[in-house]
Amino acid sequence: MNDAQDDDEVFLEPVERAATASELRYLRLIREMSKSSLRMHVQRFTRLPIIVGLIGAICWLTLAFSEGADFTIISVFGLVGLGLVCLVVRDIRGETARTQAKLSSAINGGRVHAFVVNAESVCVYPGGKDASDIYLFGLEDGQTLFLLAKDFSAKKFPCMSFTLLHFLDEDSETVWHHIRYRSSRVDELEEVSLNISRYDIEPMEVMPGKPSTYVNS
After folding, report:
1. What is the C-alpha to C-alpha distance for residues 30 and 104, in angstroms, rounded to an integer?
2. Which of 83, 163, 164, 204 has the least C-beta neighbours within 10 A?
3. Among the three residues 84, 109, 134, which one is the final residue of a domain in this structure?
4. How far from chain centre, in Å, is Cα 35?
5. CA quadruple 107, 109, 110, 115: dihedral positive or negative?
């Protein structure tokens, strides 16, 4: 562990404020998209038993006219398949309903935690095949912010100025995340190696000292 790191973890501090009109429109759009996604999945799964039933009927008739068929066994398999489809549809409906309820609560609550980041520098620690890259942002106050690349859009991130929005429900619990990119993407990044273990780093953790403090020279 680097000597410059405190024993107590420190994370990016949010500013709680009212959601803007555009942010509420974004939540309503996400809610409508979840409804459309539900309809699409339900339509797909309701078509499935019909197709399976037709194929099963054709197979049964073919066997019946050739070597004979056990109608009971075929019926059991058909009912089991239909039951599985119904369970999947029910789970999808339930998950979508929970998501819509959370989004509705966030819209009614109209509050967000905004994490505003204005960085002076950024470099990246390559995570390798099975791990996320880690971005090290040098903040204006001389500290270092650590973020995981997998949590952001590769088309727009990293950038030097952005806002992380956590939408809160009526109980002040975070129910949805959104990132507002406020500057252009940094295309050329310096790749570095760390002098601390990646497993000692938490997403959105802020450590004292500039990024060079945690980088092997």
Report:
1. 10
2. 83
3. 109
4. 18
5. negative
134 and 88, same domain (yes or no)? no
Find how far residue 87's CA is from the centre of its chain.
Answer: 25
7-31 pLDDT, tens digit each: 455 667 788 999 999 989 988 988 8
d(CA 164, CA 159): 12
Question: Hey, what amino acid is at 18?
Answer: A
**HSE-up of 75 (CA within 13 Å, CB side)?**
3
Say how many domains are in the chain.
2
* 105/138 same-domain check: no
Q: Is 2 part of any domain?
A: no
Tell me, yes or no, if the pTM score tops 0.85: no
| Residue 13 identity | E
Contact 126, 193 (CB under 8 A): no
Question: Which of 35-39, 143-147, 151-155 shows the lowest mean pLDDT across its residues?
Answer: 35-39
Predicted confidence (pLDDT) per residue in 107-134, tens digit: 998 999 998 899 999 999 998 777 888 9
Rounded CA separation 154/150 (Å): 8
